[in-house]
Amino acid sequence: MNQIPLGVYRHYKGNHYEVVGFAKHSETLEDMVVYKALYGEGGTWVRPLAMWENPIEADGKTVKRFEYVGEADEQSELTEAHRALSSTLKKCEKIDLDKQGKSQRTLLERRIAALKIALNLIDKERENINGITQPNTVE
Predict the structure, then answer these.
(1) Which stretch of DSSP H or E encloses residue 55?
(2) Nearest one of 58, 73, 65, 62 to 4, comparing CA atoms
(3) Could you tell me which residue, 96 or 133, shows the higher pLDDT?
(4) Residue ranges of the domains in the chain?
(5) Distance (Å, whole) CA 53 – CA 137
(6) At 135, is the secondary structure helix, strand, or coil?
(7) Domain 7-70 has CATH 3.10.50.40
(8) CB burial of residue 4 (10 Å; 0-12, 13-18, 19+)
(9) 3-state secondary structure of 131
(10) Span 56-60, mean pLDDT?
(11) pTM metric for this prediction
(12) How many Å apart are CA 106 and CA 103, to the nearest integer?
């Protein structure tokens, strides 16, 4: 089986995935890549290895479908989690609270507070790993 390196890959559309293993299709014996999303719900997926490795056409250019980023480690996982939570926080903060009903406004305020707490916890963990202060702390 022609294996690609285990680790983190960036999809040409920008999301990150971690290749966690390889498998064979039970009927065709085709080589498959087993990977998990490092964003959103983080589902686990399989894709034919040939499809993983084949370049594709995007915006008139030939690009790799998945670009190897590096080995998966705690720091990269924390960075990806921070990116995803920051993106969600920005979207929540753009919502006009004055146009929301009282219960929706309260729920949104609580979500924003929870996201800020989660981001600060990630920053603290990143500090523990690196022994330095991270610049992304949410106030």
Answers:
(1) strand 55-58
(2) 65
(3) 96
(4) 7-70, 74-130
(5) 37
(6) coil
(7) no
(8) middle
(9) coil
(10) 91
(11) 0.55
(12) 5
